[in-house]
Amino acid sequence: MSMNADLGKPRELTGLQQRRALYQPELPPCLEGKAIRVEFGDSTTTIDPTCANMVVQEFPNTFGQPLVHFLKPNKMDAQANDEHPPIRVGVVFSGRQSPGGHNVIWGIYDAMKTQNLQSVLLGFIGGTEGLFANQTLEITDDVLSAYRNQGGFDFLGRTVDQIHTTEQVNAAMSTCCDLDLDGLVIIGGVTSNSDAAQLAETFANHNCKTKVVGVPVSLNGDLKNQFVETTVGFDTVCKVNSQLISNVCLDAISAGKYYHFVRVMGWKASHVALECALQSQPNMVILGEEVAFSKLTLKEIISKICDGVQARAAQEKYHGVLLISEGLIESIPEMFALIQEINILHSNKVPENNIPSQLSPWATALYNYLPPFIRRELLLHQDSDNSAQLSQIDTEQLLAHLVEAEMNKRMKEGKYIGRKFSSVCHFFGYQARGSLPSNFDCDYAYVLGHICMHILAAGLNGYMAFATNLKEPTNKWRCAAVPLTAMMSVKRHSRSPGAVPTGKPVIHPSPVDLQGKAYALLREKASSFLLDDFYRTPGGIQFDGSGTNVKPITLTVEDQDYLGDIELLQDYLEKVRNIVKPGCSREILKAAISSMSSVKDVLKVMSAPFYAELPLFNLN
Ligand SMILES: O=P(O)(O)OC[C@H]1O[C@](O)(CO)[C@@H](O)[C@@H]1O
């Protein structure tokens, strides 16, 4: 295999990069010292208990392990260990680039060296292919220095996000054995972490001593569930994209002549689009999840956009900004069915050029209706998970093209009286993906790196590092590990509750929650966004100085309901119980409760009975 000879080499940093390299991420108190307390919680099942049997069958060695918490040892803590034997760990960039990824490596390295200077960290050059071919670079302070707090994955590089064929798994196992690794850390999103689970299971099955750990690193923000609040890189990418979108909004309103169609990366889920919409407030937003839920056809979507354009024209507004998610194309029911047919033909090794002639009659009709550039893009070879290459399908151009045709038609029929519709298209993906990471992503990745090392030092296999309470300052974060199998589920072919799960258990991307607060906020504001040009300028990422902490974390993470975060709820309940004492005056109670941020919501969501104990007080 050929390697890029420039990977891992020292590089020249600009002034800003040099300053960023000096930024020291903070650690929560439990990770600060040499000693740590490892506390085991209850054993886990899966996030979808109806799939538990299937997961246990596939993962007999790694299913059902307990949640693990990492805590600061008490002074007299007998469990806390200060003596640590040296360990050997390998780390690989498996998923796509995401800002902050380098700091995971830095975090693992610092944690290892704090515990024992003889420990060795090896990075696989060229990502997964480097892992298969046993191409390593020993991580040292020296080689790390140019990559601390820097964007990209160019320290080690990456290739395919796939470690799942028998050949690949065997190659990975043989490398880990050859290198006598105690641990392997896999950096990536849902696909990479599903592969990490498979690797952990196979290694355990073959008595391979290497333990496998996954880290949630993906700009998509889609590896989130009751354990994991967000992924490394999501914060930065949302901030950079929001800035770009808000710049486009200001340009649009200044000139008053173009409709801008903006598509943002985020793969199958629309978390990035939702966050950017809340931050920059464009005129229209279309998320894949809402289209899939309402089963909106392409024609209905175009009609909705045209109605919006027409409503704005009635107010003499001939500009606007429309934001769509990368995964929208797959969420449109008829496009999904067409893409599925193409995928099956690809999987049957039908050459790209022959695919159109082998489509079913209805799929052929739809295919022929689409403009030639989209047809070409739909036929592109598949991504590593056998799905369409969403980044390469210019959905924003498809919509702009069809909206223009429809507006011209309405004009001709006398249904639209106004200026001719004019559009400009943008795809914001790679620009943000290679950005310098925000302080949040630098801290988050560095902390997760430390947690990975503690998971391995505790001899755990098949776990993901995670931290919670992220909307609070770093010193209040809680550090833990969750079995990868606990986040798995099996797809159902139909959405009906009784539908039988089929396929292999994996970690699926979590869609935007259409019942969640962030989406509700977007819907509530939709009509004023459409007509009032409430454009918002969040500005670029500010690393220090005034303005640094104006937007410390993404709104969608900030607004998460604390479902599952029992500890947090208990904290709140404890506080409220201390106040609600017999004889306590109504005024004192009201003032105390309103001073506790989030307590009302937490109580409403998690503890209806306790909330009901306080009927006298107007908590709203
Ligand atoms: O074009 P590439 O680099 O293969 O990857 C694009 C994909 O990777 C992501 O950026 C991250 O998963 C997706 O949003 C996108 O579809």
Return the structural class: alpha/beta
The main sheet orders its strands as: 1-2-13-12-7-6-3-4-5
* Radius of gyration from the alpha-carbon trace, in angstroms: 26 Å
Determine the mean pLDDT. 89
Quickly name the level 1 CATH class of the largest domain.
Alpha Beta
Beta-strand content: 5-15%
- CATH third-tier fold name of the largest domain: Rossmann fold
Q: Please tell me the total number of domains.
A: 3
The number of distinct helices, counting runs of at least 4 residues, comes to 24
Helix percent reads: 40-55%
The major sheet is characterized as: 9 strands, mixed
Number of strands: 13
Specify the CATH architecture of the largest domain.
3-Layer(aba) Sandwich
What is the 3D form?
Answer: globular
Low-confidence stretches: 561-570, 597-620
Subunit structure: Tetramer of two alpha (regulatory) and two beta (catalytic) chains.
Keywords: Allosteric enzyme, Cytoplasm, Glycolysis, Kinase, Magnesium, Metal-binding, Transferase
Domain Phosphofructokinase: 88-455
Pathway: Carbohydrate degradation; glycolysis; D-glyceraldehyde 3-phosphate and glycerone phosphate from D-glucose: step 3/4
Structure description:
Its main location: cytoplasm. With 620 residues, the chain is of the alpha/beta class. It folds into three domains: 27-74 and 83-231 and 436-490, Rossmann fold, CATH 3.40.50.450; 233-432 and 511-554, Rossmann fold (3-Layer(aba) Sandwich); 560-601, no CATH class. 41% of the residues lie in helices and 12% in strands. The protein is built from 24 helices and 13 strands. It has helices at residues 15-21, 52-58, 101-115, 127-132, 141-144, 166-178, 190-205, 234-255, 271-280, 288-294, 298-313, 328-331, 333-347, 361-369, 372-378, 395-412, 430-433, 439-457, 517-532, 555-558, 566-579, 586-594, 599-606, 608-612; strands at residues 37-43, 66-71, 88-93, 120-124, 136-138, 183-188, 211-216, 259-264, 284-286, 320-325, 423-428, 463-468, 478-483. The strands form two sheets. The protein has a nine-stranded mixed sheet with strand order 1-2-13-12-7-6-3-4-5, with helices on both faces. It has a four-stranded parallel sheet with strand order 9-10-8-11, sandwiched between helices. Helix 11 packs across helix 16 (395-412). The chain is globular. The protein starts with 14 loop residues before the first helix and ends in an 8-residue tail after the last helix. Residues 96, 189, 218-220, 265-267, 326, 390-391, 429, 433 line the site of 6-O-phosphono-beta-D-fructofuranose.
